[in-house]
Design brief:
alpha/beta, globular, Rossmann fold, 5-stranded parallel β-sheet, 12 strands, about 400 residues, 7-stranded mixed β-sheet
Length: about 400
């Protein structure tokens, strides 16, 4: 399955000598993308920390790793080296710092990992300035029809087959279950993936011993996706302290199980800074359809914000809005810290246009104000050309993202 990230890597190595860090959830396709990308190069070295032979070579030092590549030769295309899951090595930052300082400009360096590569501070010198981070997300609506590098922030709408869109909603955006579209395989794959995240990755890197309680917390998050995260309630249900519950959610975020969206407060009077909302990276495990639709939209918006930021279009962040009167809008995207897109998500177009959209638009002056209806069919209309709040098909809007 071709992904947009190959185009992103093409652009990176055509313009920059920094390492490319590709970080994202387990099973999102990072290794597949890296291996496919190796086919573009006549000389490559692919090293996976989880493989004993590769680990032994890395531990020998930088010069042994690079020895098999024609680094000093005059070539039309530089060699490529890939370090997969190297963040599991306790001294990985020092190793990469030494490697890039020695060989920068002589070869292309791609680093992939299923835990956030900039989270685990294990000492050593900083890698700041030596890499650009690209966050790998599950397949999105737009990626079903477009894998070229975007030239502008917003793409024109592009028609998507309803069958493909529904399959994406049902089976999620992780490539393997999406391609197979078999319910029995999907169920077994989900169970295995959760075990790998909670009982392998987190146990190995985060050193949490109470894994059974952590599994309970992960299950609770599935049922409360899109709701305000009340850490005291989580703590009571899991029987840990508030501090521990908060720390565990941070760990689950670091391993791409869930993500949080904070309330936006700048320049809005009487807004309360409350707990963030929590969503899952895999919307397909959420049973309630309304909650899944909102999580589905949240994942698409987060992917767009990450991609636009990673590609240098500016700084894009995702928030929600809520005030003391309990007026609320599901999502706000800011561009360079200024309100840009205000969005409400609904299951049906029969639901009237939210009055809260009008209220918050008058307060923050967002350029685009839309209500996304999940059940509306695709319409060939540029959602971003609209000047007033309007109900639009979610499928059309999502096709314009990334």
């Amino acid at each position: 399955m071709k992904r947009i990230y190959e185009s992103i890597l093409n652009d990176h190595f055509a313009h920059y000598t920094q390492m490319a860090f590709a970080a994202g959830p387990r099973q999102v396709g990072k290794s597949t993308i890296a291996k496919s990308y190796c086919e573009k190069y006549p000389y490559t070295q692919y090293l996976n920390w989880d493989k004993t032979k590769d680990r032994e070579l890395i531990l020998k030092g930088q010069e042994f790793v690079a020895d098999s590549l024609p680094i000093e030769a005059i070539l039309e295309q530089k060699p490529l080296i890939v370090f997969d899951e190297i963040h599991k090595y306790k001294d990985w930052k020092n190793f990469l710092k030494g490697f890039v300082d020695e060989y920068k400009g002589k070869l292309d360096i791609l680093v992939t990992g299923s835990a956030k590569l900039n989270v685990f501070q294990r000492g050593g010198d900083s890698l700041a300035g030596r890499y650009f981070l690209y966050r790998i997300h599950p397949v999105s609506t737009a990626e079903l029809v477009r894998i070229s590098l975007p030239q502008k922030i917003i793409a024109p709408p592009q028609k998507i087959d309803n069958t493909e869109f529904n399959a994406l909603f049902e089976f999620g955006g992780f490539p393997e279950p999406l391609l197979r579209q078999e319910k029995s395989f999907f169920n077994r794959w989900q169970e295995l993936r959760q075990q790998q995240i909670l009982r392998e990755d987190i146990r190995e890197l985060a050193q949490i011993q109470e894994l059974s309680q952590l599994e309970v917390l992960a299950s609770i998050l599935k049922q409360q996706a899109g709701q305000l995260s009340k850490y005291s309630e989580f703590a009571k249900k899991v029987r840990v302290s508030d501090t521990t519950a908060r720390r565990w959610i941070n760990v689950l975020e670091a391993f791409y199980y869930c993500f949080t969206i904070k309330p936006w407060s700048v320049n809005i009077s009487r807004t309360l800074l409350k707990e963030p909302k929590i969503y899952l990276w895999d919307w397909s495990v959420i049973e309630d359809k309304g909650a899944r639709i909102e999580n589905f939209a949240a994942c698409h918006l987060l992917k767009a914000c990450h991609a636009w930021t990673d590609l240098g279009f500016g700084k894009f962040e995702l928030y929600f809005l809520r005030d003391k009167e309990k007026r609320e809008v599901d999502f706000l995207i800011t561009q360079n810290q200024k309100p840009w897109i205000l969005l409400e998500v609904k299951s049906s177009a029969k639901e009237s246009l939210s009055e809260h959209l009008y209220y918050f638009q008058s307060q923050i002056k967002a350029e685009h104000v839309l209500q996304l209806a999940f059940d509306l069919p695709y319409v060939d209309e540029d959602c971003f050309a609209l000047k007033k709040p309007k109900i639009v098909p979610m499928i059309t809007f999502l096709s314009q993202l990334i």
